[in-house]
Design brief:
The complex is a heterodimer of chains A (300) and B (264). With 300 residues, chain A is an alpha/beta fold. Chain A folds into 2 domains: 7-216, Rossmann fold, CATH 3.40.50; 223-283, UreE, C-terminal domain (Alpha-Beta Plaits, 2-Layer Sandwich). Chain A contains 11 helices and 13 strands. In chain A, α3 (94-105) packs across α4 and α4 crosses α5. Chain A starts with 6 loop residues before the first strand and ends in a 6-residue tail after the last helix. The mean pLDDT of chain A is 92. With 264 residues, chain B is mostly helical. Chain B has one domain. Chain B has 13 helices and no strands. In chain B, α3 (53-61) runs parallel beside α8 (145-172) and α11 (211-219) packs antiparallel against α13. The longest helix of chain B is centred in the middle third of the chain and has 37 residues, at 99-135. Classes of the chains: A alpha/beta (300), B mainly alpha (264). The interface between A and B is medium-sized, with 30 and 27 residues. The structure holds adenosine-5'-triphosphate and magnesium ion. Magnesium ion is lined by residues 45-46, 156 of chain A.
Chain lengths: 300, 264
């Protein structure tokens, strides 16, 4: 297994005039894991990634790959594969697009063909990119990023425009990269999109860090929800009132917010209430994400 | 740098632009060759010709520079502005974050293609002009040292125009603005300025250092000269220095401004 370099972002700040797009941001992206970089539209994800890859200069702070700024690596595109906004010359064929960047990445035409094969664009190799669909462009952008078989992979909203099969494929590709020990950073404005792919999450809002942890820890921030149905609804209502639980009527039973199934079960048992159903609702991470990113004063 | 140069050459050759420009240039210059040769060699009713001998040959062949230079200039300008227009500049900088290497490799690649444009331009003007010069005039003079000098220097000047386009594109970045600037300056501003400034003795020095006038000085003849209303020209070496000065100044300014900022 290779040991890929981490990405470290230290007190990174970027201002555009009066707009502070990225504000004192610090986080680390570890090798061997997929890190989801999450935030609503305009929260500063792309701007951060542009600073990590040397396309934009930080107003303050720094972003390093393997301890060095991106541009200080002798062949940065061999180490770091990046796909930001997919941009192409419309008059160039898909194959030629890759061939244009191949010399500096240090790969030959065979590798270009290989990548078109990998992303499913081999049949369109000779076609000019101007006629490509959004998903095809996204795939070609990914192929460009992966030309040099990079140890670090940085993708900005890679699922945009991909069909469901494409998303599943992308997911397994990223998982495989992490399993090989590479450093993988993917941004998204929808947590649900990457929930099944990422090991770690870095959540930002208005340019500031609001949460960074393994995905599992985010789950713990979620409010538990328990659906319960009793043989005697009246006795259940009495129990709910006694305990001061927050309840909502729902199809034949009640939905309790902020209480785990364990607590409800124990309470019912102690009160002698016969339960017909006791269900732990799947935690809705999207809600956690919304709460995290909507708060005016952010919790740390 | 070798890799960067290879990358830039592939960029230039992998879209249709270069051969469209080249094709139009060939058609245009063959036509100009015929027209120039015809107008210089045709006998007026009183039995005289505008020009004869080697002078006529030089005047015809040197119109490559006076008229064809807009093609390599556009080639160079578009080579850089296309990166901004299609936003490929990001990917370019991802694989080559060193802006010096980027500018140097783009310049070199365009210089090489500019030389090809120069050779093809010279062949085109000769193809158009030489037959008429032989048939109606005193000969094609293709081995005359003066003519050979004009032909070779025309090739070099065409390549320099291409490079001038690159540094201009590096500076301006907005493709539409750059194209309009190139066309307006070469087709309108400079010709008028050369005539106007050349007519005033005190200002003819300024006219001499306009880029087109400098290029004419390098080649050693101009379409203006052929029709006898040209001001004084710089010496050949002076023309070379002035052209290179344009390249260096625009290049340095571009490097210090546009190429220093974040792309976007
Ligand atoms: N070049 C620029 N000039 C001025 N403002 C900019 C520039 N780039 C980004 N911004 C501003 O910075 C903020 C962050 O933008 P950014 O593109 O990083 O957000 P994002 O998180 O990537 O959003 P999205 O999910 O929509 O892609 C926005 O307010 C945006 O308007
Ligand atoms: Mg973005």
């Amino acid at each position: 297994m290779v040991s890929a370099p981490p990405i470290t972002v230290e007190r990174l700040t970027k201002r555009f005039g009066a707009v502070t797009a990225v504000d004192d941001l610090t986080f680390t992206v570890e090798p061997g894991r997929v890190t989801g970089f999450l935030g609503p539209n305009g929260s500063g994800k792309t701007t951060t990634l542009r600073m990590v890859t040397g396309l934009a200069r930080p107003t303050a702070g720094r972003a390093l790959v393997g301890g060095r700024p991106y541009a200080d690596h002798p062949h940065p595109a061999r180490l770091v594969g990046t796909s930001l906004e997919a941009a192409f010359h419309p008059g160039r064929s898909a194959l030629n697009h890759l061939r244009v960047y191949a010399p500096q990445v240090g790969v030959d035409d065979r590798r270009c063909h290989e990548l078109l094969e990998l992303v499913g664009l081999a049949p369109y190799a000779k076609r000019r990119v101007g006629g490509f669909s959004l998903g095809m462009r996204q795939r070609l952008g990914l192929a460009t990023a992966l030309l040099g078989d990079p140890q670090v992979v940085i993708l900005d909203e890679p699922a945009n425009g991909l069909d469901p099969q494409g998303i599943v494929w992308m997911r397994s590709l990223l998982r495989a990269f992490a399993a090989e020990g590479r450093t993988v950073l993917v941004s998204s404005h929808v947590l649900g999109e990457v929930q099944h792919t990422v090991d770690d999450v870095v959540v930002i809002a208005r340019g500031r860090l609001v949460h960074a942890s393994p995905l599992g820890d985010l789950t713990r921030l979620a409010e538990p929800e328990t659906f319960v149905r009793a043989a005697d609804a009246g006795r259940l209502d009495a129990l709910v009132a006694e305990r001061g639980w927050h309840a909502e009527g729902e199809a034949g039973g009640v939905l309790l917010r902020g209480v785990t199934a364990d607590e409800v079960g124990a309470g019912a048992f102690a009160a002698g209430v016969e339960l017909r159903q006791l269900t732990d609702r799947v935690v809705d991470l999207e809600n956690v994400f919304l709460r995290l990113t909507a708060d005016q004063e952010v919790p740390r | 740098m070798t890799a960067a140069l290879k990358s830039e050459l592939r960029k230039l050759l992998s879209t249709r632009l270069w051969w469209i420009l080249l094709g139009v240039m060939v058609v245009y210059l063959v036509f100009i060759g015929v027209v120039m040769a015809f107008s210089l060699t045709i006998e007026t009713p009183d039995g005289t010709r505008m020009m004869g001998g080697v002078d006529a040959a030089v005047a015809v062949y040197s119109s490559t520079n006076a008229i064809g230079y807009v093609f390599p200039l556009l080639l160079g300008t578009l080579a850089f502005t296309a990166e901004h227009r299609h936003r490929t500049i990001e990917q370019t900088l991802l694989v080559e974050p060193n802006r010096d290497v980027l500018l140097a490799s783009k310049t070199t690649a365009t210089l090489l293609l500019g030389l090809v444009f120069g050779v093809v331009a010279v062949l085109s003007i000769v193809a158009g002009g030489a037959p008429l010069l032989v048939w109606q005039g005193d000969g094609a003079y293709l081995t005359d040292p003066d003519v050979v000098a004009v032909l070779l220097l025309s090739v070099a000047v065409m390549a320099v125009w291409a490079v001038l386009g690159v540094v201009l594109g590096a500076l301006v970045t907005n493709q539409v603005v750059a194209i309009v600037a190139v066309l307006a300056f070469t087709q309108f501003v400079e010709p008028i300025a050369r005539l106007a400034l050349g007519a005033v003795d005190a200002l003819s020095g300024v006219a001499q250092v306009l880029p087109g006038a400098a290029a004419d000085a390098v080649v050693g003849a101009s379409a203006f000269g052929a029709f006898g209303d040209d001001g004084d020209m710089l010496p050949r070496w002076g023309g070379i220095l002035v052209m290179l000065a344009y390249v260096v100044v625009l290049g340095v300014v571009a490097r210090l401004t546009t190429l220093r900022r974040d792309v976007r």
